[in-house]
Amino acid sequence: MNYGALSGIAERYGAKILFDESIARYTSFGIGGVCDVIVMPNSTGCAAELVSECRKSGIRYYIFGKCTNVLITDKGLRGVVILIGGEMSQIRRDGCRLVCDAGASLAKICNTARNEGLGGLEFAYGIPGSAGGALYMNAGAFGGEMKDVVVYCDYLDSDGIVKRMDKADMELSYRHSIFNGSDKVILSVCFELYEDDSDEIFAKMSEIMQKRRDKQPLEYPSAGSTFKRPEGYFAAKLIEDSGLKGYTSGGAQVSEKHSGFVINKGNATFGDVVEVIDHVREKVFADSGVRLEPEVMIIE
Question: Which residues are catalytic?
């Protein structure tokens, strides 16, 4: 396939474009094969043109943020992978609001909020994702979710037009938004916060991060919580009750520290992780009658 037009767009904006590049180095799992094209837009205009060109030319494309909640096949991906990351990470204060490019990491956003004396985002500190990805899946932790703080977002619609959507129209629920499975591309997100003492914000953030270090296997590559929380249950407890803590296939393992995480113990393949996920789902269902649903997006 001819990717000349995409190369021209990247060159005009000064954006990075790579051919026949492994996606593994860009994912939190450290898993994934060689992709035809990986391009990293450095502005909303660049991202909009890239997506529009793919649609016009019939080129298959994938939109990812920091790739912290995906498991990508070892076979790689045909077409174009658009990584909205560090080059699209500007943050602007507007009163008690922070307007963030989709590629801004939650760590950067939380630290900016702390420095500006704005509270409300402490729960998100340590979630390894970006503003766009967090809104896409309504990410949450420690009693908070994106739906608690988001006001609006700007996105690219199916016609290549940049539009604004208010929270009321986002259909935000547990690990879900209107963007799931759609062709809408989140470009920026606005968060509504409140004035607070920076030292108190820092103390809350530090407490949350310590809880993460104590309970989660942060020392190993993973995609975070592997399974959604089933209504009325906790996935980790169901998995542990089924005797699966430490269950291993190849280089993939149900974490011995937190059974809700499937981790890459070393050189795990896509197939290793899928086998662990499938086995866990089958065993838990057999033991409890509860069907676990993956939280991680499996791309093949």
Answer: 175, 225, 295
